[in-house]
Each structure stands twice: as C-alpha cells, then as structure tokens.
Amino acid sequence: MIRDRFELCRVLVIAPLKPAVETWPAEIEKWSHLEGLKYSLVIGSEKERIAALSEDADIYIINRENVVWLVNYYKKKWPFEMVVIDELSSFKSSKSQRFRALKRVRPMIKRVVGLTGTPSPNGLLDLWSQIYLIDQGEALGKTITGYREKYFVPDKRNATTIFSWKPKDGAPEEIYNRLKSCCISMDSADYLDLPERLYITHEVELPDEAKEQYKQLQRDMLLPFADGDIDAGSAGILTNKLLQFCGGCVYDENRGVKEFHTAKLDKLEQLIEEANGQPVLVFYAYQHERDSILRRFSDAVEIKEDTAVKRWNAGKIPILLAHPASAGHGLNLQEGGHIAIWYNWTHNLEWYQQANKRLHRPGQKEVVLIHHIGVKGGLDTQVLNNVLAEKANAQDFLIQALRAIIQEVAA
C-alpha cells in the first residue's frame, strides 16, 4: 500500500510497550518485503517522542499508553492515513481514555487494522469498542448502549445495579454474522508448522497447619495476627486472598507479607531441576511470589530488566520471571526456550492465553511444555479447571465463527 499502490504515506502502529520497542522493529528488519521502509520509535520522554514524530519515516511505532498524548498533540490535523492496533483487545473498554481519544480521530483515518488473539476475553460485550474502531459502528452500532440493548439482557443484579449482562437467545450467531464484513480469524495451526503444545498440571499438598489456616480464611474471611490481620471483607477480596495463599504468602492489612507455606516454591525447584539445565519461563501472579522466587533462585532474571528479552533469546538466562500482564502480549520468546511454568495465575483469560503464546510461536522447534503448579483442593486449581476453561469455550465459539468467512471466500 505504501510502495506499490501509493495509497499511504504514514502508518501508525500502536502496541504494548515491550512489543513496540523490541518486537515490531525486529520483525520489520527481518522480512525482505519490508526492506527499505523506515520506522521511527515514538517512545520515551515527551521531547524524545516529538523528535521521533518529526523524523521522515513510513511507519511510526508508539506504545498504547501514549495514545491520548498523541491525539492531543495532533489535535489540529491528524497525519496518519492508516493505524495498526497490536493487541486490539486492550481497547475493549469504551470508557477508557485511550479508546475515547482514538474514537475522536477515527473519522480522519482511512484504514484501521486490529490484531488480537483474544477478541472477547470476558464475553461478547467486549467486542463493541474494538469493532467500532475498525468500522465506526457499521457492524455493531454507533453506541455501546444500543449494542447492549439489542443483543443482551441483564444477568447478575440487585435492585438498582446491573453487575453483568448475558446474550439474548440467538444473539451470538447474529453478532458473528455481522462481523463477517470486517473480521477474519486465522488459526496458526492451519498456516504455520508449529510444534505440539502440552499442558501439564501438578497438584501440591499443603502442610497440615497451612491447610487449616486456608480453611479458616475461607470460612471466617479473617486470619488474626498480632502485627496485622488478614481480613477479606468481601467475596472479591476473599478470592484474591485465597489465590495469594495458594502461592504461599498473603498481604495483611498493613501490606506486610505473611508466609504460610513453600509447597509451590519447592515444586518449582523440582521442575527446574527436571528441566536439566534447559531455560524456563516462570509466570507469577503477585509481587510477593516474584520476591520469593528471586530469593530462592539467584540466577532468575525479571523480564522487565533492560535487554532481558534479547539475553533470553540468546540462551543467556536460565530462569526468566514474568507477570502475564506485562509479558503476555506481543513478545517473541520462542528462541530462548520451550518450557513455561505457571507458579500462580489469576482469572484473567486474556493474560493467560496470551502468555501461553510467548513460546508457541513461529520458529519454535521443540514441543512447548506448559506446567501449572496448583494446590490440591485450592482455589487456584478451581480457577484453572473451571473459570478459565468456561471463558475459553465462549471465546472459541467466536473465533470459530469468524474463521468461517475464510472458508466461504475460498469456496
């Protein structure tokens, strides 16, 4: 579109920070058909971003946190004919500032392409804002309110507040059908020669004392201590505290850390030993889990460290620590290893699925092993087996429906 048809001069790529800095430049330089296209990284301080925008380039790459700043900077005249949104699902909230900013300039953009492997991580309501940025409301309507009223009915609620919505009968099929005009879904297994991916769950037993404390917290929503109680005052807080407990430690009311067991930490050490020197990628859910792992393994490195991704892919990091919120999107980690271990997890399906794709990518030559360390009878195991599975099933229906358009076109 830039070189052959001369339809575009300036393209903006919006991506999570790490992929913006590391993945997009590396991929642009890797592919021969992109040779000669110049890119500019709009990253860093405001002065550095302004300087990058003034460079003569074809592609400008910015992290999604600076979208609002960019729109305000170009409030008089938007200069990009095309926008590519990497991880479009990060714009799933119609109330977010980044969505509202991009919506403001959407009429001035000729073409928008959104990329995501998790289009509806929490249900079909997530689709509206994403699709609006693609087609300005042609498929799913001009407003989130209209979309919700047409396709959904209240689900969980009290007398005055609606907590969740569920699709009306027949609504999912109608939504899928309307998306055919602007969406396609491509399964990597159909187009890429990828190795197998195996999921392995390891259940650990808590020590007797910790088991009783877990039951008490679950029952009473309180564990009293002299220097700071662990108080779970609501169902949501209790869920969070129980997941923390499964990892071994819990934050008390003063943000202190109480340690209850090392069952998962011991199992992690065993799995690392069984890897027999092969690098492992370890995902954690809470900061105190990261701290515990770093204390136990002196050669562990956090992914947020400078050059950590390059060192990992060069085989120079034996244990790479990552939180799925910061490392789950867009990073290519397949050259550094093929073993991932979930030390703990949350019920965020998008983080979970995206993180699992960091090693299972083109260029991976080994069978990808994804280990989960769960507590026997613990909430973490229930989340893995039930919550994540149910959300994944709902999303799989969407992806399968979108894939049908490719088959229709091919026919």
Proportion of residues in helical segments: 40-55%
Strand content: 15-25%
Question: Assembly type of the shown chains?
Answer: single chain
Rounded to an integer, what's the Rg over CA atoms?
23 Å
Beta strands, count: 17
In whole angstroms, the N-to-C terminal distance is 26 Å
**What average pLDDT do the residues reach?**
88
Any low-confidence stretches, pLDDT <50, length ≥5? none
Shape: globular
Which class of secondary structure composition applies to the elements?
Answer: alpha/beta
Largest sheet: 6 strands, parallel
Helix run count: 16
What does it look like?
The protein is of the alpha/beta class and 411 residues long. The protein is 41% helix and 17% strand. Helix 3 (67-73) runs parallel beside helix 4 (97-105). The longest helix is centred in the C-terminal third of the chain and has 32 residues, at 379-410.
Quick take:
This protein is 41% helix and 17% strand. The chain has helices at 17-30, 46-54, 67-73, 97-105, 127-135, 144-151, 171-179, 188-191, 208-220, 235-247, 263-274, 287-296, 308-313, 324-327, 349-356, 379-410; strands at residues 11-15, 39-42, 59-63, 82-86, 111-115, 152-154, 165-167, 197-204, 222-223, 230-231, 249-251, 257-259, 280-283, 300-302, 319-322, 339-342, 368-375.
Secondary structure blueprint with pairings:
Blueprint: E1 11-15, H1 17-30, E2 39-42, H2 46-54, E3 59-63, H3 67-73, E4 82-86, H4 97-105, E5 111-115, H5 127-135, H6 144-151, E6 152-154, E7 165-167, H7 171-179, H8 188-191, E8 197-204, H9 208-220, E9 222-223, E10 230-231, H10 235-247, E11 249-251, E12 257-259, H11 263-274, E13 280-283, H12 287-296, E14 300-302, H13 308-313, E15 319-322, H14 324-327, E16 339-342, H15 349-356, E17 368-375, H16 379-410
Parallel strand pairs: 1-3, 1-4, 2-3, 4-5, 8-17, 13-15, 13-16, 14-15, 16-17
Antiparallel strand pairs: 6-7, 9-10, 11-12
